[in-house]
Amino acid sequence: MTGPFVIRVKDIIRSPGEMREHSFEVPAPEKWGEGLVAVEAGVPIDLDVRLESVHEGILVSGTADTEYAGVCSRCLTDIAEGLQVEFQELFAYPGEEATDFEVQDDHVDLETLVRDAIVLSLPFQPVCQPDCPGLDPATGERLTTSTGAEQREPLDVRWAALQDYTTDHDDDAPRAGAENTEES
Asked: Whole-model pTM above 0.85?
């Protein structure tokens, strides 16, 4: 069993209380993520892993540091952010427990564990900044908070006739019922 995510654990198998720590960097083997952002193939993933032998198997815990890239969900500008995730899983000895992860040939393969932790931590609606105003619905231009121009809501065509209506001349027109009160 070989691969960049495979760690040999022969020296701690069935030795409860034994522990080993590993730090290494591996490239993402393929694109991880299908949404607006993803970890692209070849992007480095820094792993700090702790392997502990327990009665049931090898307990693996650690952190993965990497970077995701994609587009902002509001304004569609390119973004790239760092991502750190924690993971923990028991790799059971063969025949011990029915789990998704097992010690195989005195090795543990962390690829599925690390991939799942990273993909599940990717933001569903990533933004370039917390208060990103997004795109203007009428023009499609990116709205920015630095523009001094007042942003107007797009006018519904049913209300277009009222757009030029002003109240400037309301004081000059006689009010209804005002004529009757003066003659009395």
From this structure: no
Q: Is the confidence at residue 128, as pLDDT, over 70? A: yes
Report the 10 Å Cβ neighbour count for 13: 15
12: in domain: yes
113 in a domain, yes or no?
A: yes
Question: What's the CA angle centered on 70, arms 64 and 71, to 5 degrees?
Answer: 140
CA dihedral 162, 168, 170, 173 (to 10 degrees): -120
The answer to whether residue 19 scores a pLDDT higher than 50 is yes
Within a domain: residue 24? Answer: yes
SS3 38: strand
pLDDT of 74 above 60:
yes
Domain hosting 99: range is 6-121
